[in-house]
Write the structure tokens for this entry.
Amino acid sequence: MKTTFKKVLFSILAATFLSSLFIPAPVFAGSITLSYANFPPAPTFPCVQMERWKEEVEKRTNGKVAINTFPGGTLLGAKNMFDGVIAGQADIGCLCMAYQPGRFMITNATSLPLEIPDAKTGSKALLEIYKKYKPESFGKVKVLAMFTTAPSNIMSKKPVRSLADIKGMDLRASGGAAQILKTWGANQVGMPMSATPEALQKGVVQGLFSSVEVMKDFKFAELCKYMTMTDTVIYPFAVVMNMEKWNSLPKDVQKVFDDLIEEQSSWTGNYMDNHALESIEWSKKEQGVEVITLPKEELAKWNAMLGNIVDDWIKKTDQNKVPGKAIVDDISSMVKAASTEAK
Ligand code: DTR
């Protein structure tokens, strides 16, 4: 009896062991886990779009892919985001390209003063420029989304109603927008958005130049009681993935990511535009912020000062063998097309 029992037990164990060698492992929920790094805090738009993308990916892959999100620079910060993703410190990362102007020359053309009216148009133009010119700078990563902010405006502790008011004012901006502030006579102070709350609090800067959703998301409206509407430039963002990790993904998962590229860009553009408007309303109602609209002639004067920035940039691209003029023309015609569409 005893020997028979042992034999049966042995056969069961052997069968279980052997079958486990041939049956493919069942796919458990979350069997692929990816890390996604972001530099600003969770309530801000780069993180809101990150959570939306995570949700869509987890839903569309039926839980086969799980995304672990890291807002607030907990995995990678604003400046080392791109290199960190290339090195595999994070699988996915969201970066503001404008923080490294020379590195992303082609896509940063969208942050020239080309009168991009909103984030929806900006995001579409940015993605199209990326697809058309296939910049070498993105050769080592897989691009998962690109989008832009709404146009930038001045948020300040003291009112800015004229060029005389902005002269010498310590204002924070980085990337392409930095040159714009200098042209208007401000004392431009460069830093990523994530460093701005402390700089405003400590009085290192008297205000900032950015899309205005930050008045609500960072509660800048508690300190900056004035907004001067110039609607000048947008900031381009990219979401990129480590190339090796991308190549290791099953085809069906890659398809889900690819299908989301355009959708995520336009979702974020729309979210940004609506949220900027909400932020203006909130700042006025809840924080007593004064919104300053410059008279037409005054604004025309401000805009006219920026003409050289585009020309200088085209000259610089000529030296770098980048077709700057063609890129600028492409963006301008996309802006025109968007404005006729809107009419
Ligand atoms: N305007 C850019 C980018 C930017 C706009 N809103 C946010 C929120 C969180 C991080 C970055 C940004 C800037 O001034 O940095």
